[in-house]
Structures are given as C-alpha cells and as structure tokens.
Amino acid sequence: MPDIFLTPEELAFRGEFRDFVSRVIEPLGLPEKMEQEEMDFPTQEVRALGQAGYFGMCLPPEYGGQSRGLVYETIKSEELAYLAPALSCPGCMTGWVGNAIIQHGTDQQKEKYCGPIARGELVAAVAMTEPAAGSDVNGYKTRAIKDNGDYVVSGEKRFQVGGLGADFFITFVVTDPDLPPLKGGLSALLIDRDMGVEVVEKYRMMGYHGTGVSHLIMKGARVPTKNLLGAEGQGMAVLDTILCWERLSTAAGQLGNARRCLDEALKYSLEREAYGVPISRLPSVNNIIADMVMKRDMAAMMILRGCRLVDRYGSRAMKEVAEAKYVGTEMGFEVADMAIQVFGGIGYTDKYPVESFFRIARLGRIASGTSEVMQYIVQRDVYKEALGRKEPVYDS
Ligand SMILES: Cc1cc2nc3c(=O)[nH]c(=O)nc-3n(C[C@H](O)[C@H](O)[C@H](O)COP(=O)(O)OP(=O)(O)OC[C@H]3O[C@@H](n4cnc5c(N)ncnc54)[C@H](O)[C@@H]3O)c2cc1C
Q1: Residue 366 Cα: closest atom of ligand 1
Q2: CATH number of the domain that 198 lies in?
Q3: How many distinct structural domains can be found in the chain?
Q4: Of 215, 257, 245, nearest to 353 (Cα)?
Q5: Which member of 57, 162, 238, 326 lies 3.0 to 4.6 Å from 374 by CB, making a disulfide possible if both were Cys?
Q6: Residues 59, 89, 128, 226: is their CA dihedral positive or negative?
Q7: 134 within some domain
C-alpha cells in the first residue's frame, strides 16, 4: 500500500536517500567492515554523509541547510539501519547536535559549528553518561569551574558513540554543585577534541561494532566560556532537545533493522524447505511473519507521530517521544528475534545477517534512555495530568 502518512516531499527524500545509500555507502563495504571491527569508527562513511549535505539538512539555509524536520532525520536513520544498523547512530548524531546548537546556541557558535556541520567538515558526539550515572542525571559528577575566561573541566564520560572519531563533544557538566541538575546545576559545553579530551578506552561490545564507543577523561580541560551552549544552568533544556531527536532516531534505526530482518526472513522462508514444501507454506511461520509486519507498522506510526509533535512543540512532546522510543526499540528486538526463529539453527550463526542485527537490536532497549526510563516518563506525565498538575499543552 502507498505510504499515506509521509508527504510527497518526504517520500521523494526517502527515494533519493535510499539511492545515495546504495550508490555511495554500500560499496564502501558495510556492514561487514564494522561487524568484523576492521574500523574503529566509520570515518569514510560518516564524512561521505556529511559532504553530501545529510548532516546539515535540518539546519536553516543561512547555515547551509534546508530547514527540514525531524521526519527527514528519522528517514535517514531508518535507511542507514536497513543497510548497516550500527551506522545509523554515528551517521545521524551530528545532525542532532547541529539542531541543538541552532535551538540554544549563540550566533558565534552557529557560525563556528553549524556551517562546517552542513559542509560535512565536523563530526559531533554526545557525552552525557558517566561511569557512576547513566539514567540518573542527578548523579553526574563532571565538574566545570570558571577560571579566567575559561571553564576548567574535570571528570569522566563513558559510552560516547564516536568518541574515537568525533571532532567535538556536546558535554553535560555540573556548574553549580549546590543545585540539582534539574533545577539549574547542569550546563552544556561544546568541547573540541583538542581542548583536552583524552580517550582512555575503546569498549568491546556484544554488537554495534565499529562505532568508536569510548571512555573519555578530561583532567582540567580548558574550555572558553563562549563554548557554553544555552545559559549556565540550562543544561537540562539542551539535553531534552538532544534526547527528543536521539530517541526518535534510535527508534527509527530499529525500524530499519526490523524491515531488513523481515525481508531476510521472507526471502529465507521462500527458499527453505521442510516436509517437501517451502516453510512459507507453514501456518506457524506465516504467523511469525504477520506479527513482524504488524509490530513494525505499529512502531512506524508512533515514531512518525513523535516526529511531527517534536517538530511542532519541541521537547514538550517528551512523553510521546518516550512512547515511540519504547515501542520502537522493544519492537526492534522482538522482530530481530522472530527473524532468527524463522531461520532456525542457521539464524544463530553468522552465515546470515540476522544474527548481527539481533545483537545490535539489543542495544535499542538501553541506549538513549532505557525502556524502564521510558516507562517512567510515560506514567509520570500521565499521573501529572490525572492529578491536574501542569502538563505540556499542545495549543496551536
Ligand atoms: C553502545 C552504547 C552506546 C551509547 N551511546 C551513548 C552516547 O553516545 N552518549 C552517551 O552519553 N551515552 C551513551 N550510552 C549510554 C546509555 O545511554 C546508558 O547506558 C543508558 O542511558 C543507561 O544508563 P546506565 O548504563 O548507566 O544504566 P543505569 O542507569 O545504571 O541503569 C541500570 C538499570 O536500572 C534501571 N533504572 C535506572 N533508573 C531508572 C528509573 N528512574 N526508573 C526505572 N528503571 C531505572 C535501568 O532501566 C537499568 O535496567 C551508550 C551506551 C551503550 C551501551
């Protein structure tokens, strides 16, 4: 059936981007090179995306973009994930950061970062999580102290996708230890790699290989105060802007992963025979395929709803973002698992891509906020509404 939920322009972009991925990215040897860890970070592929304008497409025209919305960003994530799920996050992250700079930055910061982002000259990473605190933002310890026109930053951040390949990091730091982060203690800094960011470890992971996930340390890194993004103490607002884009893109990546798993399972079910017939003629296999399709379609609609709300209402749509992130990433994992079931034993080996897609899908339920944190956000906002407390109002 035709896709009635996307505009003609969005559909045209999807066609154009699919073509770009198959002409330019696929011949570079993904996903095998990432999966075999032949690369620390997909630098060539990420730079190719940037140079073709896909980092800056959501930025305003004065910075080289086309003011495209979050739907475009998630189409990009989904299409990259269909080819190589582990590419989708590093291939999209710079766009999320560019959007946050546009929303919260000074003109000088927009000049310094957004023009080069749109031209594909800069790659960004997001440094939120710390060894002692991931979900719990109140536990962040990385400290920034003002000194002679600079912030002096000391602390550790772990699990940065692109920690090995990024040029700069949007980094969340404590500027006022007497205030909780949610109440003005947290700020966002744009920290260039050469300002004193040291990579102390590259993680070996279950999947998601080749994405340069690192452990960073800053020991007295000097960051000019002009690199403060948003007002001091307003780090949570910047973080929410990033998280809306990141969560929906993560869910869309799982959609691409699921679409590919479904295609692989369909193909295999038509080729594999049991009891003298293709397994596509077995009702139990048909039921698995039907479930895969319905779960995929349900998630796609929720992700699209989330994108349209964020484009219109920004991070006031965090509850709907959390719903889409939860449904999208739980779906991604279930559908990858179902694909392996259709393949039977050979699906558990590395002879077919579903095995690596399954390991990558496992991450969706953890990164960008765990499924439990998404459940927490949804019920919190529903109770707030039920109790008549202030709740996001969609008023236009
Ligand atoms: C491969 C990979 C890539 C990543 N990329 C990035 C990145 O680019 N940048 C970045 O900053 N971070 C990144 N992360 C970090 C990721 O976002 C965190 O791992 C995630 O938010 C969970 O934090 P945690 O690992 O500290 O787990 P914890 O917060 O310690 O959680 C442990 C358990 O407690 C549960 N829990 C915690 N708090 C709550 C709550 N309030 N309600 C209900 N349950 C709760 C969790 O759901 C989980 O089950 C990445 C992680 C991985 C593995």
Answers
A1: 20
A2: 2.40.110.10
A3: 3
A4: 257
A5: 326
A6: negative
A7: yes
Question: Is residue 394, in this structure, part of any structural domain at all?
Answer: no
**CB of 140 closer than 6 A to ligand 1?**
no
Is 1 within a domain?
no
For 321-372, write each residue's pLDDT tens digit.
999 999 999 999 999 999 999 999 999 999 999 999 999 999 999 999 999 9
Ligand 1 atom showing the smallest separation from residue 126 Cα: 9
Q: What is the CATH number of the domain that holds 23?
A: 1.10.540.10
Kindly report the protein residue whose alpha carbon is nearest to atom 21 of ligand 1.
Answer: 369
Q: Is the CB of 368 under 6 A from ligand 1?
A: yes
* Report field, pTM of the whole predicted structure over 0.90: yes
In a shared domain, residues 104 and 173: no
**Same domain assignment for residues 223 and 289:** no
Measured between alpha carbons, how far is 138 from 180 in angstroms, rounded to an integer? 6
DSSP state of 344: G
Round to the nearest angstrom and report the end-to-end CA distance of the chain: 31
Which of 214, 233, 252 terminates a domain? The answer is 233
State the distance from the centre of ligand 1 to the C-alpha of 155, rounded, in angstroms. 18
Helix, strand, coil percentages (3-state) for the chain, rounded to 5, are 60, 15, 30
Does ligand 1 lie within 6 Å of residue 159's CB atom?
yes
Q: What is the pLDDT of residues 179-221, one digit of tens each?
A: 998 899 999 999 999 999 999 999 999 999 999 999 999 999 9
Q: What's the 172 CA to ligand 1 centre distance in angstroms? A: 15
